[in-house]
Description:
It contains 8 helices and 15 strands. The relative contact order is 0.13. The two termini are 28 Å apart. Helices cover 33% and strands 26% of the residues. Its cofactor is Mg(2+).
Amino acid sequence: MTQLLDVKTADELADFAEKLADAASDVTMKWFRKKVDIVNKEDEHFDPVTVADRDAETAIRALIEQHYPDHGIIGEEHGIKEANSAFTWVLDPVDGTRAFISGLPTWGTLIALLFNGIPVIGVIEQPYLRERYVGKPGIATLNGEPITTRPCTSLAVATISTTDPALFRGKDKDAFMRLLDASRLVRYGMDCYAYAILSSGYMDVVAETGLQIYDMMALIPIIRGAGGIAVSWTGAENPGEDGTLLALGDSALYRDTLDLLRH
C-alpha cells in the first residue's frame, strides 16, 4: 500500500501537512487553558466543541484550498468537499476536546492525507508539549527524528490503552475486558496521544471502537511508519468502515490480540 505514492510527492505533501499543523497550532494555542465557550454537539451524551476546533479546521482548509484546490477534504467540524483528484485530506482539528477543555495535554490535531482511499501521510500535532509526530511511507518521526515501536512478545507484559472503557458497549466491552485481563498495565484517557506514545516505543496496544474516519486516518501512517500494525478489530488492513482500530507495536501480539477481540 505504501508504494502507491512516489517518494518525492510524499515528501512534498508531508512538508505541506506540517504547514497545516503550524496553522492549526496558531489557533489552538490561543485557546488552550484559557476561558472558552463550550457547545455540546449531541443530545444523548456530552460531545463538546469549541472555537478552537472550528477555527483550527477553518485555517487548515483555507491552506488546502489555496495550494491544492482539487484535493478533497473531510473534516469533523466543516464537512466534506469532494475530490477532483486521487487525494483527500481528513481533519480532526482537536482530537480529544474533553481533554482540551480540562487543561490536559493529551489532545492533538490530526491531519491525514488519503491517496486513492489509503492513508499515506499522517500528523499528530501536540503544540503544548511541542511534539509533532509525522508518518509517511516507510518512516515515522517525532520532531524530525525517527521513532520506532518497541518489542513486546507477550500480552502478559504489555501496556495497553483505550480512551475510556465506559465507551464500550455489549460485545465490544466483553472483548476489551478479555484484553485487559490478559495484559499487565492499562492507561486511560489519552485520546490520540496513546497512539503517538505507542509509535514512540512506550506502549504496546491501543484498542478503540466507535471511531469516525477523522479519528483514525492520521494515526495509521504514523503507527505503520514506526514499524507497528494498524488494523480493524477483525484484522482488516483498511480500518474505518466499522469504527474500530487496533494498534500494535509488535507483530508478535497480532494473533493473540485479535483472538481476544473476536466477538
